[in-house]
Amino acid sequence: MTKALNAEHITKVFGGLTAVDDVSLHVDAKELVALIGPNGAGKTTFFNCLTGVAPATSGTVTIGGYEVKKNTKAYKVAQMGISRTFQNIRLFSELSVLENVLIALTNQYKEGFFTAVLRLPSFYKTEASMEEHAKRLLKDFELEDVMYFPAGNLPYGVQRKVEIVRALATNPKIICLDEPAAGMNPEETADLTKLIKKIQTEYGIAVLLIEHDMSLVMKLAERIYVLAEGKLLAEGTPQEIQNNPDVINAYLGGGANA
Ligand SMILES: Nc1ncnc2c1ncn2[C@@H]1O[C@H](COP(=O)(O)OP(=O)(O)OP(=O)(O)O)[C@@H](O)[C@H]1O
């Protein structure tokens, strides 16, 4: 089976600091994998290498079997089938929830230049299909009640949810979520857990999850990779990771939210 994501020997150097050091990781199609590690371990930097936000110093990334060429722009990498969320919410706060999702859909509903400029009938048909698609997604994730609200006015947990649905709207092979539960209350975290599971099982999209909330990770992940000081410390099932002495020493025993 083609892997949703295959990253081999990724290294990222900032000046004198090697933030990610020869890390290889893969996510199979429809698999849910977590990447954990103490603060500063290199998790977000690794995500940035995967998604073209800050290209790796060395190493290769393939998405759905296609290699990401060096210096490919982040939006081109996204078009190859990887989408992500950031630690800090990056919605268009003045726009409505619906408009935020519509923006993410535009790549899938491309219109010819003349069709758009001349406002030919197919332009309006495409617009209507996009809106229907966006509303279907919002309904599916129980966001239809807030779809006309400015995204920036919504509670934090709801904004996070909108951001994930927006990432889903690009029709990716894999979604990378960077600490989606950070700052959420227990009720919001429970809702988020269901949402992530739904992306994997009902939408058939692979998920790579960075998260400090260990109960969420242990509940959701099929496999876990552990980073420490930029290096891959361990890889295994949740049970193997929980019982790995190196991991307990470096992370779970180090005051993490276990
Ligand atoms: N743009 C940058 N320039 C220089 N150093 C950086 C840059 N980005 C990250 N770093 C450094 O790289 C290391 C890894 O940081 P990174 O944010 O990837 O860790 P993390 O595992 O995601 O941490 P956290 O769990 O706190 O988000 C840190 O020492 C950080 O200071």
From TrEMBL:
Signal peptide: none annotated. GO terms for cellular component: plasma membrane. The keyword Mitochondrion does not apply. It holds the Pfam family ABC_tran. GO terms for molecular function: ATP binding; ATP hydrolysis activity; L-isoleucine transmembrane transporter activity; L-phenylalanine transmembrane transporter activity; L-valine transmembrane transporter activity. SMART domains: AAA (SM00382). Keywords: ATP-binding, Nucleotide-binding, Transport. Residues 5-254 form the ABC transporter domain. GO terms for biological process: D-alanine transmembrane transport; L-alanine transport; L-isoleucine import across plasma membrane; L-valine import across plasma membrane. The keyword Mitochondrion does not apply. This is ABC transporter ATP-binding protein.
